[in-house]
Amino acid sequence: MIEIPPPGEYRLDPARCRIGVSGTHLFGVSTVDGTFPVAGGRIVVADPVTASVVTAEVDATGLTTGERLRDTELQSRRFLHGREHPLITFTDGHPVPDGPRWLLDGVVTVRGTAGRVRCAIDAVTLSADGFTARAATVVDRFAFGLTYGKRLGGREFTLTLDVTAVRR
After folding, report:
1. How far apart are CA 83 and CA 112, in angstroms?
2. CA distances (Å), 69 to each of 65, 74, 79, 145, in order?
3. 60, 77, 105, 135: least buried by Cβ within 10 Å?
């Protein structure tokens, strides 16, 4: 169910936000799941809602998959290069109606490479201090220059966004 929040400015609460990532590993035989922490962000809900704007920053250095060696490799220059590019950004996000559902269209920048993404909004639920939202998208890692290990892992991965936004 999608409830439209009242117009106003909201901030993402990093303590109550999570981005899940899921992809294939070992020639597509097994799945690897991980999480990114959200560093911050802002949502301005407008009237009409299609004029709303979403921005967010994700801590690229905080990616965890539950395996220390893999996490270290993902932070290396061959993948996220977290030391030089500590943030993944989402900018120019706008809600777009798509029949009975809503999409969130925006620009993601990873390691200095920007590309458009479109997330399907699964739920928005109002709360006393703001709202929570859940959305998902599939991203082609090659489009963001993450091409190392082409034979070892899948090209696409799924991102699941669970965020809480509180009124400023």
Report:
1. 13
2. 10, 9, 13, 21
3. 77
Domains in the chain, number: 1
Taking only the tens place, the pLDDT of each residue in 102-153 is 999 999 999 999 999 999 999 999 999 999 999 999 999 889 888 876 555 6
Does 105 map to a domain?
yes
| Torsion angle of C-alpha atoms 55, 60, 62, 68, degrees rounded to 10 | 150
Structure tokens at 14: 């990093």
> Within a domain: residue 1?
no
* CA gap 51, 141 in Å, rounded: 29
Q: Which residue has the tokens 């299609």?
A: 50
Q: Are 32 and 65 in contact (CB under 8 A)?
A: yes
Residue 96, domain extent: 8-167
pLDDT tens, position by position, 27-81: 667 788 999 999 999 999 999 999 999 999 999 999 999 989 888 888 888 888 8
The DSSP bridge partners found for residue 137 are 159
Confidence (pLDDT) at 122: 96
Q: What is the CATH number of the domain that holds 81?
A: 2.40.128.110
53 burial level (CB within 10 Å; 0-12, 13-18, 19+): middle
What is the structure's pLDDT at 148? 76
